[in-house]
Amino acid sequence: MKKRTNNDNNRDASTPLAHSLPPDFDPDVPSRELVLDTLRKAGKPLSLEALADATHATIPLSTGFIRRIKAMERDGQVRYNPQGRLQICNNTHFITGTVQGHRDGFGFLIPDEGGQDLFLSPHEMAKVLHGDRVRVKESGEFRGRPEGAIVEVIERRTLKLVGRFLKEHGAFIVAPEDQRIKHDILIAPQDTGDAEPGQVVTVQILRQPASHIQPLGRVIEVLGEIDDPGMEIEIAVRKFDVPVEFSDATRRQLAGIPDHVLAKERAGRIDLRDVPFITIDGEDARDFDDAVFCMPADLGTAKRARPGWRLLVAIADVSHYVQPGSALDEDALDRGTSVYFPRRVIPMLPEALSNGICSLNPGVDRLVMVCDMMIPAGGTKAGTVAAYQFYEAVIHSHARTTYTDIWAALQQPTGPAAQALGELLPHVQTAYDLFQSFEQARRKRGAIDFDTVETRIVCNPLGRIERIEPYARNDAHRLIEECMLAANTCAADFIVRNKAQALFRVHDGPTPEKLQALRDFLRHLGLALDGGDDPSTADYARLIQASRARPDFESIQTMCLRSMQQAIYSPEQTGHFGLAYEHYAHFTSPIRRYPDLLVHRVIRCILHRRRYQPPTLPGQPADPALPAKIRERDAWEALGALLSARERRADEASRDVEAWLKCWFVREHVGEVFSGRISSVTSFGVFVTLDTLYVEGLVHISELGGDYFQYNEALNELRGERTGLRYQLGDALQVQVSRVDLEARRIDFRPVKGEDFKSLQAEIEGDPRTPARPYKKAAGAKPAALRGTTARQRRAEAKRDARQDTARKRRS
What we know:
Blueprint: H1 6-14, H2 32-42, H3 48-54, H4 63-74, E1 78-80, E2 86-88, E3 95-101, E4 107-111, E5 118-120, H5 122-125, E6 133-142, E7 145-155, E8 160-168, E9 171-176, E10 185-187, E11 200-207, E12 216-224, H6 231-239, H7 248-255, E13 270-272, E14 278-281, E15 290-298, E16 307-316, H8 327-335, E17 339-341, E18 344-346, H9 351-357, E19 365-376, E20 387-396, E21 399-402, H10 403-411, H11 416-421, H12 425-445, E22 454-459, E23 465-471, H13 475-497, E24 504-506, H14 512-523, H15 537-547, H16 553-563, E25 568-570, H17 594-607, H18 628-666, E26 673-682, E27 685-690, E28 696-700, E29 709-712, E30 717-720, E31 726-728, E32 732-741, E33 746-751, H19 757-765, H20 791-811
Parallel strand pairs: 10-12, 13-20, 14-21, 28-33
Antiparallel strand pairs: 1-2, 3-4, 3-6, 4-5, 6-7, 8-9, 8-11, 9-10, 11-12, 15-16, 16-19, 17-18, 19-20, 22-23, 24-25, 26-27, 26-32, 27-28, 29-30, 30-31, 32-33
Helix pairs in contact: 6-18, 12-13, 14-16
């Protein structure tokens, strides 16, 4: 037998699974995608020979080619016309959608038209990668969910990925960091890019997966070792395809933008440089896109005074520098939003804009868009905007302050923080009076006020977590938040009143399924949500307020949050359910959100009596036969879908980095015991959030004991059939950190016996009222004389000895 060498193994990497293929396998058979693409481009039916020639298949036709065509005919992809030629079968029963992978190897099809997802088995997922667009036919049912079979891959969306470079059994592979992709990417020896085993690399996909073929790739970038500082961010931006570098055209455009406001740019703008605007942000903020000023005002007439406030919210005029269709605009649209990581930000705009000419830094002139509002202090409209106007202006920020400084100044008007504000303090106190009026109007409006704990990750210079601490929000945060909400609602109302189109921030009410799940949960707690089939925001607010004193308030609040839908961007102004606003748009953060920039452009066009035309996205050309309003509407809908997806991408990337850092942090605590609360209940276990570390991990159902646990979705609990032991949402639990999987971003716990103060005190004092846990006494070691025999043998021997003794007594 010929000895197998490493070179043989590496050659196998380029022809995987060769040892398991049938003897008549033809490696040159064109893929289904190639066959369909060829027929589609031909525009007419083709004979088998013509199809083989167009796809560079072997002639005469091989057995594999004939089998491929028969399989496609069986699956309804192609059919023969009366002349015996092959054509695409336009089957209306096929479902088109996007593949969503799962870490356990199976996946789902998310239909483009909405509706229920289809289950894709691991066998089907072997043909595709997460994110691919495919056409599927229903093939049966899997655990109550429709199951699908892939008949055509429409678009391959994963062209590059990031993973760990490994060498296994002499072959080079890359294991993807994205756990939704379960394929190992084979790498030919000449395509390793000098990567060393264990390093993190970026791979270009050269050959996509098929039923019996693994994907093949080439290393195009070596990122470094997995434990290098900042590696988690480098992985995330590539894993979620977050743009990092700006284009050369953008850099050239930046060179022509001045770093200060020119005299000609102030022309036609209202000069507010003498108005004492201030910015209020966090200590680590670097870009300041909003400044505020508040003063008392009389909204009445000469005969009747009507006290109130005048609030000016100045927002950086990014639309002046980022013109539609420019290179800056294209890069900003590609990002959609800034992405925030611990210790690093991937900005939507270059720093020369975001931290420079567009940032409302103190002591320099800046161009702004101002929302000027009048708010009455009394009457039925107290705390609501009675009148507003928008205009372009230039301001000169008088101070850069922080939430901590402002809150300290408000609490101690004679303290150091208040003295540092000097002449600005009365305006801050006036703004705080306005905030209290906003708060009363918010409660009257019925907006939901969730009381959640926000956390902040504190990292060391190497980028590793030192601690995770709760982030306390004070009234200074809420003051700015209410000012921004007022400006956002005015922007939406201004657009609607002028009958213009734009992107609104839309938050719909709960779906019927989520609403029913919430009502089932509340019914078992003796609570109810008013409003019938269409509850209002005020109904939710009343439920939250009535439950605050209950010990299970956190679980009630969690279930209310889960019943909500995710907010999106849409041209449909259906309102914001959570904030109880009829119209709502994002206006106040154009430096970090592209939808805000679009709203600025629409408002500017209204002020200049023009109509803004939204950009047409690549790959979605407008149909000239449609009316102009319909084309404009379609463009806004496409923008809304794209920017909503960009927002989700940024959130997923941020969560991925935080999960990685938390896993790295908890690795130092494996074996330690912590207290926590159940934050989620599933059929396979419970998720527990630790009280002191603020990290979440899984207690698998196999760790809960020998009982069989039933999952009750309505009650959000696991109940043991034999013991009746229950694990419910919000229950306290003592757990031990048992395992940390850095690659899967997963932390595993196991439950331990609780050791609270009362049980420890009872154990020390020997309290007889506290029954001790019964322990079975361990059996002693078997005597040496009995070793090697069983109890049955000893009993039989004892019976024989007894019979012999009886016989001897009778004889004597």
